[in-house]
Write a structure and sequence with these properties.
DNA-binding; Rossmann fold; homodimer; 2 domains; alpha/beta; Arc Repressor Mutant, subunit A; 222 residues; six-stranded parallel β-sheet
Chain lengths: 222, 222
DNA sequence: TAGATTGTTAATCGATTAACAATC
DNA sequence: TAGATTGTTAATCGATTAACAATC
């Protein structure tokens, strides 16, 4: 079947750097709301959280006139806007691939925003299939993936399998119709262009730290 | 006591972007070595792994003349060099803060390179202190942090506590003398300038995915 | 109206990529 | 020597920051 004609979406016009800052802004605003602040200027926000005021204004301006000149941004209104922009006003249903330590940790993770709900977890190990997480989600065999994705309306897959299995699992995830993947396995993965893949590779981050320790230790020019 | 005079280290001259690519290059070279390839040109490496040849050469050139003109890079020699540059020729001893799902997942994680060894895990929950991970590491109370860091020679801390506790825990970690921190908790953390902090905030990544799903769904200009 | 702060345009900065002289 | 490929300089690109006109 032919891909539907791809319209120009907001996501095409907004850089990845901007997008991830939107999440950060929302978290800052949550704190301000908690503290009872009603209105905030980009300057204040920047000073308070170590950001750049011009960047905040530019990032937000992508999405319309969200502030009021001479006044600033209404905290509650901006929070609502950001939640809507980030798609947090609807619940994204999440499936986890891999019921090892990491997969189970993610399934029980309590730090997810409203807007995300873990609804399924998959593995291939017969010893794991059928078990339940602490939250009461039953581990399914990955051969039930396609059907479960359709039935449960899963939007996002979290890849928590060993690096050696990751590409195969991602291929199955893509085949099941999922269009957004967050990968925790180290190494590069290939996905078709209509699928959005983000990777959080902490092994690379760890080796970056190791580099800093090493060059600190030696502390000399090349 | 006064901080020792800070010399200009390699880390000051090399961008973070370059540093994390070094890890990626090493992984690619591991694959080539596995496949029995002895020598590789930047062009070949780039084509094979979807990288840019000029960037590879520039990144590597920071660390001396690692290749041979007209020939390319000796795979084994470059691997050794990269391991040394990244500090993977010595073992970095790792302590984990937080013995919840994520902390235990990290403690049992099998994907760490040689060069990293998890030697301790800490929590404040009396119900957790004294238990052992599958790998046999005993969970210690965080009030033993300082002493354990000194005794075990811990170089790197992984923060796997809830966001609300993260800043307090990081302060203790810094006070214990650790200079490299990898943070898994969402939100910004403050550390003194001599400490290197990296954060892998998967909640921001997840919200970025949510944004793409949302703008895909709507698919219209602002 | 005067003061404040936005949205936006222009200037700066840094990182990526291309080009090429050096050299194996 | 001729061909290949590096290390490095120059050109391009994009992102960040500064400046300011619009406007509340």
């Amino acid at each position: 079947m032919p891909e539907p004609e791809k319209r120009a979406t907001l996501a095409d016009q907004v850089s990845e750097a901007t997008t991830s800052r939107l999440s950060v802004y929302l978290r800052c605003l949550d704190q301000l709301a908690e503290a009872g602040v009603a209105t905030v200027a980009s300057n204040t926000l920047a000073a308070r959280f170590g950001l750049n005021a011009a960047q905040i204004r530019k990032d937000l301006a992508h999405f319309g006139e969200l502030g009021v000149r001479g006044v600033g941004y209404d905290v509650e209104k901006l929070r609502r806007h950001l939640r809507e922009i980030l798609g947090l006003d609807r619940t994204s249903r999440v499936g986890i691939l891999g019921a090892g330590n990491l997969g189970l940790a993610l399934a029980d993770y309590s730090g997810f925003r409203d807007g995300f709900e873990v609804v399924a977890i998959f593995d291939t190990d017969p010893a794991k299939v059928g078990r339940r997480t602490r939250r009461g989600i039953t581990v399914r065999h990955i051969y039930e993936l396609r059907e479960t994705v359709a039935r449960e309306g899963i939007h996002i897959a979290l890849i928590a399998v060993p690096a050696t299995a990751a590409q195969d699992v991602v291929d199955l995830v893509v085949a099941s119709g999922i269009k957004a993947i967050l990968n925790f396995a180290p190494g590069a993965l290939r996905v078709p262009p209509h699928v959005k893949l983000k990777s959080v590779d902490f092994t690379v981050s760890l080796e970056t730290l190791s580099f800093f320790l090493a060059s600190d230790r030696d502390g000399n020019q090349p």
